Here is the input.
Amino acid sequence: MMIPPDVAATIVDPRAYADGRIYESYAWLRAHNPLGLAHPDGYDPFWVVTRHADILEISRQNDLFHSGDRATTITNKIADERVRSLTGGSPHLVRSLVQMDAPDHPKYRALTQSWFMPANIRGLEARIRKIARASVERMASKNGSCDFVREIALHYPLHVVMEILGVPEADEPRMLMLTQELFGAADPELGRNKGAEAVPGDLGAIQAVLMDFYQYFAAISADRRANPRDDLATVIATGTIDGQPISEFEAMSYYVIVATAGHDTTSSTTAGAMRALCENPDQFAYVKEDLARVPGLIEEAIRWTTPVKTFMRSATADAQVGGRAIAKGDWLMLCYASGNRDEAVFEEPNRFRADRKPNKQLAFGYGAHLCLGQHLAKMEMRILYEELLQRLTSVALDGEPQMSQALFVNGLKRLPIRFEFS
Here is the structure.
């Protein structure tokens, strides 16, 4: 039942998510201990859930497996204690949809849900296509080589979601920097303390990033209450739950989740799709031959990249999952990137196949916490690749891709490519 110490240590090592060792550990776990107990140094013990079926079973039982009772992302004991001392006992520095359970979660989700439904985002398609074409033109101006992450993938979804949220274009670089500092806190290059390895339990940098977000969105919130607009910021600023305005803390948390997760995961998948096309010329040719295959490319890129690697849940009662006895209060790590390579669900899981049907990827989660922005993310990526593949005649790597060091959300931070346009 216990996971070997070396495998447990890999699961909580941000560098393993950057260099790919995490996939070797996941493969070993699926084969030998698919729902095992990890107890790495400095952490409370937690169950590591690596099979697709077990992740789905836990995700569909939201009353039995809560998001909000304990830290929602893997946290060592020192950091957990510090968060609780700062918050008066809560394990969360923010309280967004991610950290909520019923009855609050469905009420807060309903505030913005209609903005992200297919019927609404279809009205955005023309505007998004215009932004995509501008991105393609920017790439065309690079004379056949660029860092696709830094020059294209980071900026395109950022611009889309900031328009929806209501953040001025001039402030987009600030939002990008803060997002990278939050999700890349453990990365010496992306974290706020540049050049320094993250110190386990040190929350100073993350607190500072969150404070910058809060100060920025407090001003946005005040403006929208005085001058409502047709944007998501106005919905959040003027939102009510059970007839009462939502608290400042929960409003700020809502802004942060939209302003970070709303583009970062899409950027990672956009870049992951390009890397896959560089490394698999047959797939480039297959999709290029018929642009109706682009949605399949995007679905496979989502599975292949899985930017949100893990989320934590805690059991509200004794339970049985995957043949294991889970006790009330136990902490569980849902390993989405493992579920998306599960040999029991995906034929040739370690091959990138744009023709994969069905593609039961679970990168957006499942159940009540299914990603609110999934339809928008898929549409953004589809439109960009429809526009890009009309022009792109060849593409290849032009250096070594680099991934970010992060346990929670990670993706490419560099993707040097060379290419030809028609």
